[in-house]
Specification:
The complex is a heterodimer. Chain A contains 17 helices and no strands. By secondary structure, chain A is mainly alpha-helical. Chain A has 2 domains: 217 residues, MetI-like (MetI-like fold, Orthogonal Bundle), CATH 1.10.3720; 80 residues. By secondary structure, chain B is mostly helical. Chain B folds into 2 domains: 41 residues; 214 residues, MetI-like fold (Orthogonal Bundle). In chain B, 72% of the residues lie in helices and 0% in strands. In chain B, 46% of the residues are buried. The chains are: A mainly alpha, B mainly alpha. Chains A and B meet through α1, α3, α4, α5 and α6 of A and α1, α4, α5, α6 and α7 of B.
């Protein structure tokens, strides 16, 4: 009896010694911040020492009212929902297609494709953000690529006017044709296009024909300067694109791993019985992956709502707040200008709540339509 | 496996077309993935002045000027401090997550207690919670505790953020180990810590590997949390250091690309060596019910 008691005590002590370290850290990092943000979101705490400094007290739900009345809040929420949508309806289907192609051995070298498409996931999001914002900027390769195509096309048009000639003579006909090709660009450069163009042509000697063609192309071709991230109407698009670029490979890996758990014989015998690829996908693979699909959707939603770094490093929420997402909106309220910690904490709670609501909805959809294949 | 079905001409054509389409999709997306990274590395060997006129071409004369020298990215970015810091945070936090998770996982799985249900459930709920949404309360908490701008704060937050996944995976894994092993050791009079050390710990190497893989890549690249935990250069990690090159130094493209390349290469090499383990680990980490 005494021995049994001693063993029981050892059991309890061992249990708590094993569980407590993890539990304490977990409480400090997840549970306590949530409690703190609940308290602060209904207070008037404004920075400074929390204990023993300036006094602060519970003041009620005014910050939530302020939040609901702030258009910037709704804009951030909207942007977050865009990111959720591109994740759930972009990353997941695309990742599924990649996984399916590899799984059904439609292509050779499965490990190669898998390895390549996962690469964006192991690069720091900061690198990805800076890299892509350079690509989408006027200094990026997109502008150069498009402009070199335009240059070549224009060059051909101008050169056609002089085809078969080794020199040129300035005629009214030639000037008119050049101006036709140049279009409005000519009147943007010259005040009196025909006369000034004649002078311009005259400054070249006939044996400089090739140089002249190149110079005129440079002068008249309209150059394109990509400034996606600076234009409010489209600034979100590059961000959504990069979100897709970055995470699709992750879902491909997850789907592929789960597809590989399906018994190969089921698919083989279905094929022998005359099922086509579409039917295999519809009736065997998709049902088997329904659980995985729901889990990845949850992963997507939780990740998308709290995402911060990518947008922060790509646009910082600009231009003029249009690409702001909840995490950045929260960050700005806490650290920019006069800190409003209660408001920032209210935003934190909204983020947590919205993600739980969306996850709940996903689960509900699963319960309603889900053929539980597992 | 589907040779028997491809008997009709139409079937053969359809299969060939599907194959073509599949290759097309894979090649297209692979290029879209690899080219930007290749472009980044290539341009890091170009002087900024050359980059301004030609963004697509190869460097005329590849140069290391962007990297080395007193004004190179290495020096400007303080990479000699960033890299050791990143190594400390990554290895320290990963090790902490694994030890705490496996310990608690063993207790949850093999020591029968009423408290387990509630505590374990609270960890599992944490799987749905992203620590990133708690940036501001965490910042305030770290200040209350007086550990702002310390390595301790970074390690603590990283370990806490990794625990839900760590505990979930290790508990489920240890549950799969036959309880009879523990019971017979108990009958022989072994204490739980001894059982943990000599029986369970060696058997949890697979799940520990998965956790290491998941956390090493995640923590090495983490930005949002550490951004609010430290501000001193001596404590910054690689992503924080690289972020500087997107702001104040962003018009010196050559150096920016060099800095991004320095920050990317260690992980690319790591990935190249452990690709198989990484993919398996990621897949295992996402399987939850």
């Amino acid at each position: 009896m005494a021995r049994k008691k001693r063993i029981g005590r050892e059991e309890g002590r061992a249990y708590w010694m094993m569980v407590l370290p993890a539990l304490i850290v977990y409480m400090l990092v997840l549970a306590f911040p949530i409690v703190l943000s609940i308290v602060l979101s209904v207070s008037n705490y404004n920075g400074g020492k929390m204990f023993g400094g300036e006094s602060w007290q519970i003041t009620g739900f005014s910050k939530y009212a302020k939040l609901v009345g702030d258009p910037l809040f709704w804009n951030s929420l909207k942007n977050n929902l865009y990111i959720v949508l591109i994740s759930v309806f972009g990353q997941l289907p695309l990742g599924f297609i990649f996984a399916y192609i590899i799984y059904r051995k439609t292509v050779k070298w499965p490990n190669f494709w898998q390895g390549v498409l996962y690469v964006p996931n192991i690069i720091s999001v900061i690198v990805v953000a800076v890299l892509w914002s350079t690509i989408f900027s006027p200094k990026g390769p997109l502008g150069e690529a498009i402009n070199s195509v335009r240059f070549d096309a224009f060059h051909v048009k101008i050169a056609a006017l002089f085809s078969g000639q080794s020199g040129f003579s300035i005629t009214d006909d030639l000037v008119r044709k050049i101006l036709d090709i140049a279009g409005p660009k000519a009147s943007a450069i010259f005040t009196d296009p025909p006369a000034e163009l004649k002078d311009f042509l005259a400054s070249y000697s006939p044996d400089q024909l090739q140089q002249l063609i190149t110079d005129m192309t440079n002068m008249f071709v309209s150059k394109w300067s990509p400034t996606f991230l600076g234009i409010p109407d489209v600034a979100m698009l590059p961000i959504l694109f990069v979100t897709l670029w970055m995470w699709t490979g992750l879902y491909m890996i997850i789907f592929l791993a789960n597809m590989q758990k399906i018994d190969v014989q089921i698919i083989e015998s279905a094929r022998i019985d005359g099922a086509n690829e579409g039917q295999v996908m519809r009736y065997i693979v998709l049902p088997a992956l329904s659980g995985t699909l729901v889990n990845t959707a949850i992963l997507c939603i939780a990740g998308s709502l709290s995402s911060f770094s990518l947008v922060w490093a790509m646009t910082g929420g600009g231009p003029n707040h249009v690409t702001e997402i909840l995490a950045i909106y929260m960050f700005n309220n806490a650290f920019l200008g006069r800190p409003d910690f209660p408001l920032a904490n209210a935003i934190a709670l909204v983020m947590v709540t919205v993600s739980f609501i969306l996850i709940g909805l996903t689960k509900a959809v699963e319960n309603k339509f889900g053929g539980k294949g597992e | 496996m589907s040779e028997e079905i491809k008997t009709t001409a139409l079937g053969r054509f359809g299969a060939a077309f599907a194959k073509f389409l599949a290759y097309f999709v894979m090649v297209l997306f692979s290029l879209m993935t690899l080219y930007p990274i290749f472009w980044l590395i290539m341009n890091s060997f170009k002087p900024t002045r050359e980059f301004q006129v030609s963004q697509l071409g190869f460097p005329h004369v590849p140069t290391l000027k962007n990297y080395g020298g007193p004004y190179g990215a290495w020096k400007l970015g303080d990479f000699d401090k960033l890299i050791p810091n990143s190594v400390i945070y990554t290895l320290g936090a990963t090790f902490g997550i694994i030890i705490l998770s496996v310990l608690a996982g063993f207790a949850f799985a093999k020591i029968p207690r009423k408290a387990t249900k509630l505590i374990y459930a609270s960890f599992v709920i944490g799987l749905l919670l992203s620590v990133q949404s708690l940036l501001i309360p965490l910042f305030l908490e770290v200040n209350i505790m007086g550990i702002y701008n310390t390595r301790l704060a970074v390690l603590l937050v990283y370990i806490g953020a990794g625990l839900p996944m760590g505990i979930y995976l290790s508990t489920e894994y240890i549950r799969g180990i036959p309880t009879s092993l523990v019971e017979s050791a108990r009958i022989d009079g072994a204490k739980y810590f001894r059982i943990f050390r000599s029986i369970i710990l060696p058997m949890t190497i697979p799940v520990a590997t998965t956790l290491a893989i998941l956390n090493i890549t995640g923590i090495w690249n983490e930005f949002a949390l550490i951004n609010i935990l430290v501000s001193k250069t001596e404590l910054k990690s690689l992503p924080l250091g690289m972020y500087r090159f997107s702001g104040s130094l962003s018009s010196d493209w050559g150096k920016q690309f060099a800095a991004l390349t320095i920050g990317t290469l260690p992980m690319l090499v790591f990935y190249f060596i452990f690709r198989k383990q990484i993919t398996q680990g990621v897949a295992a980490g996402a399987v939850k019910g």
